[in-house]
Design a protein that fits this description.
40% helix, alpha/beta
Length: 292
């Protein structure tokens, strides 16, 4: 399935006639010096392009590109963010057929990204920029609406919610309505509860436990749990030892209705996701030989 297929038909991979659509693996490639996971390993353009191609080879059907991390850090100008992501988008579009999303909260960056060939904007602030929805709608592109409560790069104190799932649902309902009112096609909208974004470990565990409640929108559920701190804190595992915890979390998310999973380690995540789908009856084993 190509990027244009997903952009037009909605996320998912066709598992065969009459089968449920399979979960899409969304590979992560960041052109930042301070990414929490790779610490700038793909900041250089050639390394970023190589990472995009590697993600595709390992089974990703979608790639999420970013120029500014969400977490606290030095500000990045709009021009610098554009200079980081646009060349990568152009090269990725030239070499792959994957869906391309760009992780940004800034409308001018989104406009440049969409003009360069991106299909979706992954907005971790849930359309906090008043111009964002209009930019996406005019380009006839898609959006991932993510819950957070602070501005990106700005630290927050103690995270408090009346009920984290209900509060996030209320936030996303407002953002879905805003996107629809702006003219964004409903088939091009995904919702993401925003694991760890202004949330503590207990909040992120609760979001995972009750992920199926986000099906109320009738929109694809996008989850970004890969190697995150709630996994690290739960397992007392440093960043480079969270793949197993991530795989377990992905399995639960798939069982709870996730349509797209954003991951650093595509090959390992693909095995976890497809095995879960096979258990659920959505994916056929690759050949039957054992005791046949």
């Amino acid at each position: 399935m190509t990027g244009s297929d997903i952009a037009s038909d909605g996320p998912g991979v066709d598992g065969g006639a009459g089968a449920q659509r399979l979960v899409d693996l969304v590979g992560i490639v960041n052109r930042t010096r301070d990414s929490f996971y790779d610490k700038g390993a793909t900041y250089q353009l050639d390394r970023a392009v190589a990472a995009v191609l590697r993600a595709e080879a390992e089974g990703a059907s979608w790639i999420d590109l970013g120029g500014v991390p969400f977490g606290p850090g030095a500000p990045v100008s709009l021009d610098e963010e554009i200079n980081r992501v646009v060349p990568l988008i152009r090269e990725a579009r030239r070499q792959t057929s994957m869906v391309i999303s760009v992780d940004t909260t800034n409308a001018p960056v989104a406009e440049a990204a969409l003009e360069a060939g991106a299909d979706y904007i992954n907005d971790t602030s849930g359309l906090s920029d008043p111009a964002m929805a209009g930019v996406i709608a005019r380009a006839s592109k898609g959006v991932v609406l993510v819950h957070s409560v602070s501005k990106p790069r700005v630290p927050v104190g103690h995270a408090e919610y009346r009920d984290v799932v209900s509060d996030v649902l209320d936030f996303l309902q407002v953002r879905v309505d805003r996107a629809l009112d702006a003219g964004i096609d409903a088939e091009r909208i995904c919702v993401d509860p925003g694991h760890d974004l202004n949330k503590n470990t207990l909040h992120s565990l609760e979001l995972t436990r009750r992920l199926e409640e986000f099906g109320v929108f009738g929109l694809p559920i996008f989850v970004a749990v890969s190697n995150k701190d709630f996994i690290g804190e739960t397992l007392k595992a440093p960043i480079d030892q969270r793949i197993t915890g991530t795989a377990a979390t992905l399995a639960v998310c798939v069982m709870k209705g996730a349509s797209l999973v954003r991951v650093h380690n595509v090959a390992e995540a693909l095995q976890a996701v497809r095995m879960t789908e096979a258990i659920l009856g959505r994916w056929q084993p690759d050949g039957l030989r054992h005791n046949i």
